[in-house]
Amino acid sequence: MPEPPAFASQFVSVPHRDHTAELGMWLFIATEVLLFGGLLLAYFVYRHAFPQSFAEGSRHTDILIGTINTAILLTSSFLVAWAVEVFSPATVRIVTWLLVGAACLGLVFIALKGIEYSGEYDERLVPGVDFQFGGPLANGVQLFFIFYFVATAIHAVHMLIGICLLLVLAIIGRRAPTTRHHAALHSAALYWHFVDVVWIFLFALIYLPGRASS
Amino acid sequence: MSEPNYLTTDYTLQSWFLTTDHKRIAILYFASLIFFFFIGGAAATAIRIELATPQADLVSSDVYNRLFTMHGIIMVWFFLIPSIPNTLGNFLVPLMIGARDLAFPRLNLMSWYIFMLGGCTTLFAILAGGIDTGWTFYTPFSTLYSNSYVIVAAAGVFIAGFSSILTGLNFIVTIHRLRAPGLTWYRLPLFLWSLYATSVILVLATPVLAVTLLLIATERFFGVGIFDPRIGGDPLLFQHLFWFYSHPAVYIMILPGMGVVNELVSCFSRKPVFGYKFVAWASLAIAAVGFLVWGHHMFVSGQSLIASLVFSFMSFVVAVPSAIKVFNWTATLHKGSIHFDAPMLYALAFIGLFTIGGLTGLFLACLAFDVHATDTYFVVAHFHYIMVGGMVTAYFGGLHYWWPKITGRLYSEYWARTAAVLIFFGFNLTFFPQFILGAEGMPRRYHVYPPEFQVWNVLSSGGAAILAVAYLLPMFYLGYSAFFGARAPANPWNAPGLEWQTSSPPPEENFETQPVVTREPYQYNEAFEAEPQNA
Amino acid sequence: MWREWIPFWRPGLSPQSSDVDLLFTGLLIASALVLGLLFFLLALFCVRYRAGNQIDRGHRTSKSWHWEVSWTVASFICFLGLFVWGASVYFEMYRTPTDELVVFVVAKQWMWKTQHPGGQSEIDALHVPLRRPVRLVMASQDVIHSFYIPALRLKHDVVPGRYQDLELEIDKPGSYHLFCAEYCGTDHSGMIGEIVAMEPADFSRWLTQQAPSSPLADEGGALFRQLGCSGCHGKGSKVRAPPLEGLYGKPVPLSDGSSVVADDKYIRDSILLPRSQIVASYEPLMPSFAGKLSEDQLLRLVVYVKSLAGNRS
Predict the structure, then answer these.
(1) A–C: how many Cβ contacts below 8 A?
(2) Environment class of C244 (CB within 10 Å of its CB; exposed 0-12, middle 13-18, buried 19+)
(3) Domain-embedded: residue C51
(4) CA A64: distance to chain centroid?
(5) Positions of chain B with pLDDT lower than 50, given as ranges
(6) Domain boundaries, position C172
(7) Of A4, B192, B243, B490, which residue has the fewest beta carbons closer than 10 angstroms?
(8) Using the beta-carbon criterion (under 8 Å), do B232 and A143 form an inter-chain contact?
């Protein structure tokens, strides 16, 4: 009895399957770019209309947590890249730990984000729930914080999906690492780096305006 | 009996609902789309009955507003956008490129489940009390003033959007990676070029809709949001974001139809499509330029004059590749050997109706006339000529053409031609009067209207009755054919496409042996009837 | 006029609407030619090359790209012509003539409220004098509406949060439909009214017959004091705020070096979003009045500030 092939019947070889999967992930990232693109467009329109309000809003964000989170995400991306690089049947343990490490850093990011949110809640900066901001810039600051919450929440959802992906791969890969897992890891890593890149944009747009010049 | 085909390999429910076979998934989509088509159609019927008289007599204003919203949302997102791509496309993409399946079969199944989840969510919104925002969800009405199930409906559309994205992604990857040996880009059937262009739009435009709907839902849920004019938000920004998706979405709704018509015109003229490369690149040109015309929905909204000027210009530019296609189809007929079977009747109807729709699109792209005509029945008539006269006609044409391949049965040619002719006349009677109404100045989405508009409305409602019957007819004869029709040969049209080189219906793995392509597409020979296959 | 013979296409009532009609006729003729040619060719080919018809089909696959290039170029040039024509008429609509009568329009679910500068207000109706350019300054109290007069081929959306202008001029006396063309909720189709065009003499008589009410500027002045604006902008106040006398219609230098003309939009924005455009050499002290004023009150303030244009301080 012939052994069933390691790849589905629509493919002709393992590399064929893997390259196809990779193309799929790139297209998915293209979709995601447009998703965040629409949001960023809205941001730029309003920042152009209310530059002082956006600077003022930005000054009320927690740049310390934002910066730590940026460092955390960059580190976790590094761990994932490392895992992809060293992936082989001989390095199961290290790959597993690298992925778990990256996922844990992701969780720390989410936890810090939660602390940041609760801080903003205490400062009554959550539009639609409890928003109190005196002075003439209040409306623009409110727009800024709506954008802030929507963008970071969507990003956090992406983070959670990514964390799940990394953990699943860490668990599966531990049992029987194959080329298939390598391909899956490669795609998951692309996704994780993408989420990281989005954060770098958000970091620059949310935390930095209004701090540079004044 | 012969070898088992994809329909007869297994009869269990599980084998259908957990299938990863693109052909079975296409059938799942087909069944769901019929369902949604009749829901949307029922709403349209109620609207046309109501509009037969100027007063409100059948329903109240609130119900009327929910009816046209439901008609729009269901027809756009749950019928037109998935129609050809997800049924014919799903069935034919692997067959036409000589592959065993799409690149990601499980993703394909998942996209159907996502679609159904979105559909059920939207149906729930309708049953719970409806949505009265119009399919366009314009703010601030949808976010701050509407007293209906906007969040649920937006969630339904949002979810269905992911199904679109995954389908588009699957098609692009499949067409890139899984083509049979020898099947170069310029040997692809033009249907695939148009599906490819469609998929690009699906992947790149749908996420913008998703994030826009998310912002709408947020604003509605929290009572404050980024489109809220009370805090300096701009309702026009919503329109920009919405039309950035929704204008390309119009091309999602027409490009696959154009693709089908290429196949039909070529087959029933027994000739290659005239100017293959022009038609192929015209599809991509439409997809690309289609991203740059969205502002033509906003000529009277207060956007800057310069923006209007640019968008008007781009709208004329995007009409050029469409014009190329119409001319090339006509030229394909020249010196052909034309057979007037039912699919060809649909194709000819498509060319006529699409051209009228396209030309009136130029009226609307024309700035000064658009000021008068926008938001009137002129617009309604125009986009129905494109979407119903164009896309739905092409869908029916394609369905008849590939019906023998999909079901392995033949349908009644007599009834099929009757339905095609009825659809053509019913359609024109329904929608041509609406051009006149629009030119006269009747605004769209009007529940009651001044009595001088009644004549044309009555004509339109009468046409709608014919159209409704015409759309019901195929249900019967195609339904009959699916179970009792004569067995179809593998290649009833004697066509050279790869999908015809396997049995009807195809086996689960599509091809016994991996096909190899050695020539250009559309190499028809004069003989229309296929030689009898060896039994 | 030949246009009267076409039942659904009544002649225009203003120079501008006649231009639009001419454009429409041009579009119709162009389309008819294209459709005629297309249907003729379709019919011809379908009959000549029907299967079974014995006819020369030689060289059936030979083709030349000249055809495609020529019809691509031909359609493009044709489209370009239509584009230029449509755009030029469109720009004509936005030209601001001198000696305009200004009427304010407030749209709300589901009615049109129009207000003449003299204080006369109408619901779902607008009386205008003949042959006099009228500028409508429109605002919406709630959702997006669209002010549409089919007889004049004119339409403009009324988006909340901003003023929008519509220029109109009517040459023929009569009463014309006014529709709301942007879907605005339950009674959208009931948000209709009439435009009544009258001889100028009749119009002045009509104005005086309306219920006596104080001019908008006076009411705006009262609001101006009531809301405390006069505390800073009034003469002799201690707080230094830009004077409003003689302001309207003049360029205002801004703190970022640019300048804007003080029109209705500018005054409105300065009340609602005072920090967006700060007058040069003034401190940004003014609070925003966004959300604190109805559109009716706002337009009275704007008219008041406008009325100060005459008396320079």
Answers:
(1) 16
(2) buried
(3) no
(4) 18
(5) 1, 532-535
(6) 101-210
(7) A4
(8) yes
